[in-house]
Structures are given as structure tokens and as C-alpha cells.
Amino acid sequence: MRVLMLCNGYPSSVEPYKGPFIREQVRWLKKLGHEVEVIRLVRINVSRIMVTPGPHLFRSWKVISQRLGTERSGVVDGVSVHYPPVFVPPGRLFARLVPALVKWQAGTVIQRVVRRFKPDIVHSHFLVPNVFIGEELARQYGIPHVVSVMVSAATFGAAVG
Fold first, then answer.
1. What is the pTM (predicted TM-score) of this model?
2. pLDDT tens digits, residue range 39-98?
3. What are the distances in angstroms from CA 56 to CA 47, 89, 104, 121, 141?
4. Coil, strand or helix at 128
């Protein structure tokens, strides 16, 4: 089976500690004989702090330049990983726009990977924007979509009621 992972965290040369649980899942899938390819969106959260003068300004832009320094693709543990950078604006108002913004910024990379890799299943980690993108890919290519979302017990309890 060919599995396409969509996630916000996966190791890169700039952030080797990101997404250890996803990396471990990918290792096990490979060990079981599945082919896996990863699209890790390198989210660059643009906030008001980044445009407001002050001591925090330098730290904010340092993080951005670090993330922009992430390679665009590479191989981690024998798995092809793609790292399209995605700028995400601040605020809840924009939360509904994030999937469209990601598609606009990284859609070409995502479509190119899907057409070449031809996944049998899409596995999305985290809700926004990966679930929306994964669901759209699943519908477009007629393949199943699996979602992994982690929340704390307090968050889950508040949501359920």
C-alpha cells in the first residue's frame, strides 16, 4: 500500500526534533512493507508581533528565516519528504481561510507528489489545514482518508460537554 502522510511536524535539517510520533509511525509502516511519502507543511505563522517594533521582533524574524531555510525536499530514514513553506496569517478570522491559503501556496507541490506517487490512502495529522487538504485529495482521487487528531483530556471534555 502507498501511504501519503500530510503533517505539520516531521524531522528536517532545520528542525530535527519535529514530529517524532509521526516519524515512528512512518518507520513502522515501512517495516510492514508499505511505501510512504510525507508532505510536511512548514507553517510560518505571521503574527502582529512580527510587524510591531520591539525586542521580540528580531526573535520572530529569526524563527521565520530558520523555517525558510528548511530544504524543499529530502529523504529521512529512506522516506521522501516534501517541505513546502506556507505563510499563515494571524487570528481566528483567518482560520477558515487557512486551507485555501495553503492550497494556493503549496497546491502545486501537493498535486505533483500525488500524481507521481499515486497513493492508495491519505493520512492527515492535525486538523488545520491537513484534514481539509487530505479530504479534498481523497475526494478528487477517489481514495480513503484517515485522520489523526490529538487533543488533551481537558480540551476533549470541554468539547463534548
1. 0.80
2. 998 877 776 666 566 666 556 656 666 666 667 888 999 999 999 988 777 766 566 777
3. 11, 18, 29, 42, 44
4. helix
